[in-house]
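Worked example 3 (structure in, sequence out).
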């Protein structure tokens, strides 16, 4: 427990983690995809749904607005009681209080593609779809996190195969790893909190 730990160690971890968040925020650009791994059982289960890399359990799309990066992401559970698509500050999204890992991914698109992505994200955010507990790619009225990112990226690129879904238990599914392990993605930065 934290209360049993040496206060100097706790302070060093807090300072280190604050530095991680500040560094991550400074690296963000519009169109980047951000990844994180939560500490709860639900995060563990979601990460296990990945086929190639089980490090991350959640993702979102970064847009710089008024000089600051915000993350658009679809999340359910007690952290988001209305279960609608969210827009959070990057600082909040990366908080080390409930996360163990974070990463930043850049894609091979240009500024026109980023503008298209911004339009796609804005349309989804105006509709505020609920979190998709069925993990069903066939509908747009409910979206799970990687489904939101997958659909927004494919719309921005005008290419239904830019990000490709895989199969999970015989159903089409987009895992977090399908977002960052593909020919278009480049890992900018990844780290684990102390």
């Amino acid at each position: 427990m934290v209360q049993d730990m040496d206060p100097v160690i706790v302070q060093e971890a807090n300072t280190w983690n604050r530095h991680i968040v500040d560094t991550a925020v400074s690296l963000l650009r519009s169109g980047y995809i951000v990844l994180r791994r939560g500490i709860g059982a639900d995060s563990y289960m979601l990460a296990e749904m990945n086929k190639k890399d089980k490090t991350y359990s959640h993702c979102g799309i970064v847009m710089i607005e008024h000089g600051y990066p915000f993350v658009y992401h679809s999340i359910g559970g007690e952290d988001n009681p209305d279960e609608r698509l969210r827009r959070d500050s990057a600082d909040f999204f990366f908080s080390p209080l409930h996360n163990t890992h974070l990463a930043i991914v850049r894609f091979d698109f240009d500024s026109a593609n980023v503008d298209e992505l911004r339009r796609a994200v804005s349309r989804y955010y105006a509709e505020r779809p609920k979190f998709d507990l069925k993990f069903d790619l066939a509908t747009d009225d409910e979206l799970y996190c990687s489904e939101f990112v997958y659909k927004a990226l494919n719309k921005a690129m005008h290419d239904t195969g830019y990000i490709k879904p895989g199969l999970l238990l015989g159903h089409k599914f987009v895992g977090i790893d399908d977002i960052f392990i593909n020919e278009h993605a480049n890992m900018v930065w990844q780290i684990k909190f102390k």
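Notes: The longest helix spans residues 7-27. Strands lie at 33-38, 58-65, 68-73, 86-89, 99-107, 130-131, 142-143, 166-168, 171-173, 185-192.
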